[in-house]
Each structure stands twice: as structure tokens, then as C-alpha cells.
What we know:
Number of helices of chain A: 12
Order of helices and strands of chain A: EEEHEEHEHHHHHEHEHEEHHHEE
CATH superfamily of chain A: P-loop containing nucleotide triphosphate hydrolases
Distance between the termini of chain A: 33 Å
Shape of chain A: globular
Helix content of chain A: 25-40%
Number of strands of chain A: 12
CATH class of chain A: Alpha Beta
Largest sheet of chain A: 8 strands, mixed
CATH architecture of chain A: 3-Layer(aba) Sandwich
Largest interface: A-B, 45 and 51 residues
Number of strands of chain B: 12
Number of helices of chain B: 9
Strand content of chain B: 25-35%
Strand order of the largest sheet of chain A: 6-7-8-3-9-10-12-11
Structural class of chain B: alpha/beta
Number of domains of chain A: 1
Order of helices and strands of chain B: EEEHEEHEHHHEHEHEEHHEE
Shape of chain B: globular
Strand content of chain A: 15-25%
CATH architecture of chain B: 3-Layer(aba) Sandwich
Oligomer: heterodimer
CATH superfamily of chain B: P-loop containing nucleotide triphosphate hydrolases
Helix content of chain B: 25-40%
Strand order of the largest sheet of chain B: 6-7-8-3-9-10-12-11
Largest sheet of chain B: 8 strands, mixed
CATH topology of chain A: Rossmann fold
CATH class of chain B: Alpha Beta
CATH topology of chain B: Rossmann fold
Radius of gyration of chain B: 21 Å
Distance between the termini of chain B: 16 Å
Amino acid sequence: MGQEIKLLDIKNLVKVFTIGSGFVKSRITAVDNVSFDLESGRSEIFTLAGESGSGKTTLARIILGFIEPTSGKILYKGKNITEIKGRKEEMWFMREVQPIFQNPFETFNPLKKVDSYLYETVVNYGIANKREDINSAIDEALNLVGISFQEIQGRYPHEFSGGQLQRISIARALITKPSLLIADEPVSMVDASLKMSICNLFKDLKEKQKVNVIYITHDLATSYYVSDRIAIMFRGTIVEIGPVEKILIDPKHPYTKILRDSVPEPDPEKRWKEKIKLSSFEEREFLSIGCKFADRCPYVMDICKKEAPNDIILDGVTVKCHLYSS
Amino acid sequence: MSVLKVKDLKSYYISEVFGIKRTVRAVDGVYMEINRDEVFGIAGESGCGKSTLIKTLLGMIKPPLTIVDGEIYYDFGDKKFNILSLNPDESRKIRWEYISYIPQSSMSVLNPVRRIRDTFKSFLGAHKKFEKDELEGLVKEHLSALGLPTEVLNAYPHQLSGGMRQRVTIALASILKPKVILADEPSTALDVVVQRGVIQLLRNIQEEQKNIIIIVTHDMGIHANICDRIAIMYAGKIIEEARTDEIFKHPLHPYTTYLIGSLPKIGDKSYRVSAPGSPPPLSNLPNGCSFHPRCPYVMEKCKKEFPSLLNVEDEHRVACFLVNKEDDNGARD
């Protein structure tokens, strides 16, 4: 074979949601033929970026096993996760891949003490069962995120700030020593002055603990700061994928260009000048054939409205656009 | 010439449940002066009182929100008033014609079971008398001036995308050509591309109608893009206020320095540091300067007294003992 087993290998993933029933049924392809992979043996932060409704959260939920894909394969360390059977395999997968959610105030039950979550995680995953071992496992995980056990012992979620709670939920995810964290908008609910400390934490975990992170966000500025590679999603497809420096500094796909230019720069000298065109009815874009961006694209050609573009590899970047097919 | 003048405004949330009195000092001694034809930004983290400030400026005061102290003067030339002393009838007349409001979530403004046209009709009908055709023409004219398709009038709110809904709300807020538009996080719930469209629209309206826009958001990128002047709020107080380029280039307050310094930029991967600690709860503020537990330059004085907002340079005001060391006696008018 000679081919190395990848950490995560996603092949032609499709998820179709059916909306309504009877005569007014309509089908929306939330994830449309998505493929990407994460190499094993090195740690990286991979960003899935896109607007709301681009399918990035659906993709994350499929990888975590919350939603079944309509078709396609997800291989985690060579194992197809849609075919996982039995408690033992399931446990192995859940230990390896851990989620971090958007709103830390919703991840914790307001009536339960925060440390009880950490206890339960240790016990449920069978990491330790003696009191001292459990405590040391919790302490170890909390140390990684820069919180001491004394700080959280016996306290309820409302006693913490959003930033601290998000750190605790990252610590909870780290208890099982996962190889892959899937973080869905982990900083969007965190206060502005603390956002970067969470971003720095992810970088730190990547360097020191060799954890891979799939970072899902709509915020291109933080994704440039933390990540190594980025995939830009639009209406269910990945339109451009590659190293973050290449894609965000010199975007190829017209959609990425517009997205990149629309990030408000915190610099009064770089105000927006050109005007842009917006879609007024979203559903039309989902249902259109051909390239879904064709209606708004400044470089639209006849072929764009008829055929969906294929992947084109162009100096280290994979882009889906007819502009580059010769 | 200042159109809006806020003097020592204190609006607190005071609640009493089972004999336990709780006071949340959301806006705690704010002074502001806003001039004609100006876009003024208020920046701050969640829970610093910026939305409460906007609500108070609009005169939307409902318990538990209580005005403890202060005055808000509007001076429109033909009309001068303190909004806090108006009765409900008078403030209803002023709202939308003189002062209008753009909320964060447009779904809560537009009635979900009525077409956009009907919302416009009942909205305008409540303020002025119109002939039947005149009204429709006015709405269409306004929408096309803003670059929105007139077909949205036939749609129900759920049929529109989030960005279009927000732009319809902005059209609604600006159709009577108000003198002041208060915008509370007008683009926060939107995607970046749509956000750009919404900010573009706000800027067009301002250029054409020459009204004051007070925009509240935590996104410094938006402030950099649209504002003439910016005030930074922390724990219910304005701690720094200056022209936009000044605040981005020479922030003086340690909190502002952290806030500006931690902003990620595309094309710059250098290490960013966040402010240490976390913002204090408004119901339990520390003594002295509210930022002192997080401040790296904290002095003994900071723990006891609150620094007042003083002029440092032309149009640049800061509330910090570090910056205004000597002139503590320069009390405000």
C-alpha cells in the first residue's frame, strides 16, 4: 500500500436536509461533496471558515458523529466512523475526538457545580476511579489551561466569566487526552479583551500537547492568527483550501476575495471604499445549479451558471472556480 | 455646536426580591457631548453598560431600570428638551421623527405575520397623515434611494435573509429623516459580507441626511470604519474618548491599550496579549478605579479614588491617574 494512514480523512461527504413535508418538501444540501484531510504525526490548527449557513457547523457535527451523513466517508485513523459499532470502539472514538462548544454558559448546567463535570468525565471515560487519581487527572488538565483546582472547587458556572468557563470546558475536553479537538466558534462569546488569551491557549496546546484542532469560525482575523491551514466554505462546498498565509493574503476565489475584503480592519486608514452586492433571498443561492456564487460574482461567465466548478490545484492552494480552469 | 449633552448620567437596575435589594450600576456617571453631523462610537465589552446607555438616551426607561441622577439634553434648534423629563405622549412624538433606534435583532422589530409593506404603512401612519398612494410612493422612493429592491415590500420577514431584514429595519428607522439615529450593535448578528453592506448603508444615510449616528458595538473594526469619534466604556463609565485615528494610534488608558493591542490583523502573526483577569460584575464593582485589579500599573491611589475623565490633549479625554497625574483639580463644568 505504502500510503500513510491519515489522522482524519474526509471523502466526498454529502448531507442533505429535507425541509417541510408532503407537497412543499424541499431539499437543502448543507454539505456538498466535501473532502479534506489532516495528516497524522504532526499537529496543526485547521480552520473551517464561512458565513452562517455555509454548512461549517453541520460538517463539525458529522465529524463528531452527532449527525449521520447522507453519503461519503470519514476515516479517523483509518477507521470509518459511520460504521463504528459497540461500546468499546465508540468509547475509543469519543476519547480521541472531543468537542468544544460556542457558548460556555450553555455547556454547563447552571445548577451543577463546575467540578462535577470534570469528575464525571474522568469517571465515565474510565480514566481513573480512585479519589486521588481522579483529582490528579483533573488537576493535570486544568494546569494545561492555566487554572488551578482550588479556583474552581465547589463553584457554580455563574461565578465565572465567559473566558474562564471556556477555559474550563477546554480543560474538560483535554481530560481524555484527545488527538483532535473540534472547536465550534470557541471565542465568539468570549469578551473582547480575553479572546486572544483563548487563541493563545489553542496555539499552546498545539505546540506542547500536540493536539490537532479543527477551528470553526466566521472570524478571519483570529483564524489568521491561530491556524496553519484554512478552508473557506460557501453554501456547503469548500471553495478554497490551503495554507492560511496564502489564502488570506492572496485569495484566488472571488468569494474569498469579497470575504477577505469585508473583514473590518481595526485601522481608520483602511476604510471600505468599493460597494458590494448582497443576496436578498438566500434560498435561491442554495437551490441554484452551477456555481452557487455566480449571482453575486463580479467575474461571472456563462459556464458558471451551468456547471459546478471542479477542484483546481494552483500553487499549493486548491480552489473551485472556473476562472482558473483553462 | 453640540446637539446632545449628557451630564453625570447614572442609570441603575434596582430590583428588590424577597427583601434583598440588588443594584446593578450599568451606567455610572457618564458625560458626553455630541456635535452635529457626527458619527459617534461607543465601544466596550459585553456587560459594560453600553446598551443601557443607548436605552437611556432614547428615553426607554422601564423598571427595574431607574435613573438615579443626571440629565440628557437634546438641542435641535427648533426643539430643546431634557428627554428624562418628558411625559410618555411627548416622548412618543419625538421618537422616530427626531430620535430613532436600530436594534440588534431585526426579527424582533418586524412583525412576522405581516408583510413589510404593512409594517411600513402602520409605522408611517402613526406619525403623519398620508394619502393612500403618496405613502406607497414615499416608501418605494426611500427604498430605492438606499439601493434596496422594492420587491421586499411584498415579502414576509422570514422570507428575507438576515442582512436584508436588518437593512429593512434601517430603512424603517431612517424614513422620517431623524436627527439622531441610535444603533445598538446593528451588524453584530450578521456575516462579514452582509455586515459590510449594512455599514455601507448607514454611511450612505449619514452622508445624505447629515444626522448624528451613535453606534454601539464591541467590534473595533466597525468603529474604525465608520466613526468620527469613539468613547471606550468600562464597567459603566467612559474611560477614554478621542477621535478615531487618535484612539487607534495613541491609546492612553491601559485598558484601551490592551484592547487595541490585542486586535488580530490579517497579515500579522505576532504574539498578542490579552488583558489579565476578567471584567468585574456591575453589581459588585471594586472600589476606586474599576480597572485597578487588572491593571499592571496600579498605584495606591487607584484603589481608593475614581479618576475623573479629563482633557489630555485637544479632544482626547482619559480617566486614569497614570495619564493625568497632577491636574486633579481640573474638575469638569
